[in-house]
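Predicting holo structure, zinc ion bound.
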Amino acid sequence: MATEKGVPSNSRVMMLLAQLERMNGDIGRQAETARQVTAKILHLIQTQEKSGKEVMSKGSSGMEVILASLENTRDVQTILNISSILTELLTVGRGRRVGVFVSKGGTGILFQTLISASKEMPPSEELMLQLHSLLAKVGPKDRKFGVAARLTGALNVTVNLIKQNLQNPKLLLPCLQVLRVYSTNSVNAIAMGKNGVVELMFKILSPYTKKNTSLLKVALDALGALLKSKTNARRAVDGGYVPILLALYSDWHRNDSRHRHMLIRKGLLVCLRNITNIKLGRKAVIEADGMRVLYNTSTECLPVRTLDPLINTSSLIMRKCFPKNRLPLPTIKSAFFFQLPHVPGSCSSGQMYNPAPGADDVVDESDDNDEADTENDSENEEDDKDQPSPELRIYERFFVELSEDFQGFNFESSKPSSTSMSPSSPFTSSVTPAKSPRPVIVPTAQALSPKHHLPPSASTSSPPAPHGLTSLELDNIHVSKDQTKEPHIPSTDRHECTFSSLSKTTTEVENIEKELARVLECVALDTMDSSLNTEHRGVKQEDVSATGRSRGSDCGSEGTEDDTAEGAVLEVPDTALLLPLHDPDLYVEMVKGTLSVPQYAEVAYPDYFGHVAPTFREPLLERIYGVQRAKIFQDIERLIHPNDILDKVVYDLDIPSCPVIEEDGESLKFNSQFESGNLRKAVQVRKFEYDLVLNSDINSNHYHQWFYFEVSGMRVGATYRFNIINCEKSNSQFNYGMQVLMYSVQEAISGSPRWVRTGSDICYYKNHFARSSIAARPEGKSYYTLTFSINFKHKDDVCYFAYHYPYTYSTLKDAADLLRQDVLCESLGGNSCPLLTITAMPESNSNDHICQFRNRPLIFLSARVHPGETNASWVMKGSLEFLMSSSPLANSLRESYIFKIVPMLNPDGVVNGNHRCSLSGEDLNRQWQNPNPDLHPTIYHTKSLLQYLAHMQRAPLVFCDYHGHSRKKNVFMYGCSVKETVWQSNISATSSDLQEDIGYRALPKILSQIAPAFSMGSCSFVVERSKESTARVVVWREIGVQRSYTMESTLCGCDQGKYKGLQIGTRELEEMGAQFCVALLRLKRLTGLRNHQHLLDLESDILGSQAKVASSCTTTYVLDEDEPSFLEAIDYSAESNDDETEAETENTPEVHENLEQLSDSDTNHRD
Ligand SMILES: [Zn+2]
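Done. Tokens:
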């Protein structure tokens, strides 16, 4: 026989094997010799380690010889010897040796041997035991084990053995071990189920015992595997085994006081877990009082950390069994409705706008899933591409600076520059083209739309009212309490509280402070519809007046000062000083011109006072161990102790008379009826716990994510738990360190007007509220809960909570009003969409300077197409303030470029507290291919502006749309690369030969070098089909802007760079905006004026080797979630599939990895 070098062929064991090999042809007749030889081999292997090594050594054919003998012999004793040899051999160095055994076809021979041995009457018990022990060793390493067992008939041999040997633990154990392996194959599981194996396993299970526990454990494992099959689960339910499992679990829980048998307890739970994958199973658990059993046992396990697996599995079962509820709402359609204009023509999407009543709940999967809107766009593209130039000519007026005779224009704004700006502002003084190199905002025509609507103070060209430019209107500002209590009070009585004088004189300040301190409810505006206000506040007035006074004195006593009337001076922050582009007075004016669907009449304090970024660091919140579990247990308690639940509705937009809460100080008060507010309903669940429901985007029935609401009536010292119960995304950065934002009016008044990251015990998980069958795909889809806990610091405070730093449309107008602006168009809701132009006047009238001025490249920026992404506005604020600053860099930028900026593409969405859509219930960033002038005016006109520029051969050098990203950290960009775009070429092979200008990479690369929050690693330059109607892609493909980007800023924080481990704040966001501008200046140096060849060299310098780029077709795919998964399952949907159909297939079909990757990247890109 063949031996390998190093193994002496004359070694004892090898000689015996050679002898065995010679016999193999005729082993049947030499039974006695075979017995002797195999016995000797066995002895050698048992006594000398080296013998085993020799047999198993590489190149040795020892295993073949042994297997051949096993295959050929019929002699029981020889078979026993050989299986003992195999047992000895495979016990050592298991992995490799078993592998060799399997690869030589050992499993099949074992099964054959088993079958023929089973035909002996009676079969040898010892042989059966040996063979099963061997199979139990081999099974887990052989992928085809289950199939082979079924095909050879071994399955039934084992099952019959078990049936006949229930009282024979010695034989039963290896049989069960083999059965456990059989059961992992789903077809086997079903076959065995039909053969009564489920019931058989229950015969083996027993109440607490110290005997044969390993047997029990294996039987439970096998049963658990069998119950993964839904037919078997059903069999268990029908057989009444659910109460038995629960009783067994209780018994073991009670008696296993030293936790020696955790695995058995876990095994029982796994059986229950698998049974509850079917609806009947969940029902059976509930009926057997399983919730209480599992809840109580888990509660008792809580103190012992090693029992966590039991608690977690129990928790999973309870979550699955928790009866599904509908949201406590009359309809999931938005509480507000906006009548859309009739869209002429048979626009296919037209039906969407005015849905039939029954079509209420049509929902697409999630806002991350962009696949839905990708049909039929290629034709639309054609229509749009060649807009006749006469039509485009109307956009000429927005580009006065590009016209031949621009010097003839009056470059002073037709609107007076604001007087409330700091004198150092470079753009306040009048600028004449000839003399001053200082920057101006080049004004253009006042309005495009005939309906054009400017904010009151902006629409006038009369001389400015010095300073108190809003003083006339101030009479209209009341503290809401007063207004509602005495609606007809003469306005003269209110003169003392004119806000214009807030920081002017001491006495006035004091008056106002008293006023403010007395009532911190809200600032209300006198509106035409004052009935709305009174009605809404009808009950609340009383409450307010009841607590108003005491609130005032509390304010005083909160501080360190004494509580005498004059002494207790509460500093109302002069945020105008701290916030150059925020003027509270002007803000109120701006609010009056803002049109909201609900006709809001109040102003939220944070928007009024403004926000000054705190100076302290705000680290990502460390997640406390077991926090989600604890929260889920509290949720389950609602079912266990229903009498403890208050279920008291304290706020409800759907009921105009609500909130009707008695003023007993037992409930918080909520309010969301102000610009950008979003909270639909609040239900007090327990004394200090509230379920909150968010409103859908207007004219839609989902997109719940953004929230912004006011809370008052709190107690100090209590921990309040808030649950937002209708979140939709499957995971959230709230699980990875993000906190909610809170604004305390008390803090603001005492000099810290700011949003701070706050909240403890934050987590985000799937809950027991079901999305309606129409709204949810697949069926049974649930909502998610965001829960956070708050300890309020001040008594009688008014606090605001928000998803992210609010930035309202009125705030933008407030800021933009200090700049000069055009109105691009009016939104659907009647709000004007500002277009800002920033550049410097030519240095002089010299030809050179004029020429330079005319040839300045354009930079086109936009933001806030998605209203919930408020961070985009803060980045934009940073860009604007930097561009307007007196820094030499800013000056240089203004001299280098003409900036065209649409800072808020979706004013209506912002005003009305939407998260994603405009009033048409559509995502405006999916309308760029074919925007409708009536339904998507801001997109239509912005695109037309760009088309005009392209037509004039002045397409922007850079286009960037600012966004926010809710699932990733850092700031990053999406760009457009032909090369990396798979869907365009279809053939990836050709794309690597493609030459492409890699200029699009320069800007993000520069940003990664200068902006600490920016991460190049998260950037992607793939153009997915699902994104083909976004601003970035349309501007790239149709306008021909190579550097067309989406810039995504995290809502959470950073995990790299200087801000690693910190949550993002407005300071960092604004810095990002400023750095973006600085990067443009560097880009200019690279684009090196007419020296285009030079550009590539320089860029490749920056970018490192170009070869790397060429070979990096997939390097910038962002493949999966950037966060690791949790130990605690956020979602248990994989476990609770309602689908009752049985998957009979042997193997789950292979998933095409490429497709998978593509769709993964789609769901993670969110521009
Ligand atoms: Zn976005």
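The mean pLDDT is 77.
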